[in-house]
Amino acid sequence: MAYQSLRITVEAVEEARLIRVAGELDASTAKDLRAHVGAARHERATLLLDLADVKFIDSSGLRVLLDASRAAADTGWSFFIVRPSSMVQRLIALTGSASELALVESDERAAA
Q1: Coil, helix or strand for 16?
Q2: For the domain 6-105, what is the CATH code?
Q3: pLDDT tens by residue, 46-104
């Protein structure tokens, strides 16, 4: 059995779906997140992707975020990244991709 370094939980929140991601989002785990994102998109459920507990993210993880954002822009589907961890924020800053992503920070972080 392969060790999975990523934990994904899914909750219904009114008309939306909240997906919480914890651990390492990389080439070996990105496909799992892509499947959950795809299911939300297929159902046209507003997706809130909580990345507060992501400890590591590489280009594979970023690709999932960018693909979801592009799909949202192209189809009118509602997709938001909430509470990105410092690792996620760092990768977004390094790649200059913030303008392509719907990022929502908590009130506490925005005030800091």
Answers
A1: strand
A2: 3.30.750.24
A3: 999 999 999 999 999 999 999 999 999 999 999 999 999 999 999 999 999 999 999 99
- Mean pLDDT for all residues in the chain: 91
Domain ranges of the chain: 6-105
Query: Helix H segments across 1-106?
Result: 30-42, 59-75, 86-95
- Could you tell me which residues are beta bridge partners of residue 81? 49, 103
Nearest CA-CA partner of 52 in 24, 13, 7, 20: 20
Handedness of CA 1, 61, 10, 41 (dihedral sign): negative
For the cut 80, the answer to whether the pLDDT of residue 4 exceeds it is no
